[in-house]
Amino acid sequence: MKDSGPTRYRRVIVKLSGEALMGERSFGIDPDVVSSLSEEIAEIHALGVSLALVIGGGNIFRGLEAKATGMDRVTGDHMGMLATLINSLALQEALEQRKVPTRVLSALEVRQVAEPFLRRRAIRHLEKGRVVIFAAGTGNPYFTTDTAAALRAMEIRAEVLLKATKVDGIYTADPVKEPDARLIKRIGYLEVLERGLRVMDTTAISLCMDNGLPIVVFNIRARGNIRRLVQGEDVGSMVSE
Predict the structure, then answer these.
(1) Which of 49, 58, 87, 210 is most buried by its number of CB atoms within 10 A?
(2) 81, 108 in Cβ contact below 8 A?
(3) Residue 4 pLDDT exceeds 60
């Protein structure tokens, strides 16, 4: 891993939704999207930034949606965790094709395809310059991958949680449905919770608030945004004290 210049953050965690890997498809993984994303991650890695990722599984399976059909919530959540593992392996493969050393650490033990999650092992991989992908959420039902991202961020001592979305940041309302919605550049944790803004789930926000971890919400579809963020540019919306 080489260092190509100064960065604002030295260790970051990026939360990606499963839908981010879907592109314009209605289901599954778009290879072109994964390739483009891996290229951008490789650029961040080349800057010398210690990088971890958490990926959702909504492009393949959602536990909450399964519950609505009568499936047991715990079973549905475990199926969703396995979907995140599929996405993690796809991204790992794309990164390693770009010669970026990558490790998938799973909260569910599937030793044939991923290492079991151990905090010290994850930190050691990061110290050795490897990109770490955390799969299977927290390993527990009823907890989202947003909460998993917040938890893993604390465990690896990340300096910021980068929440990737389809829009430019946090808005006063859904900008797709309400064209007059206003972009909020800076906001406090409590205000996010009080106003019910759909940034991340309340457990994730509360965990970040209790530990003083800033969250930056940004548009993953705008090429180069992750690089601009780690280099200190004012991109997206910041949630902090």
Answers:
(1) 87
(2) yes
(3) no
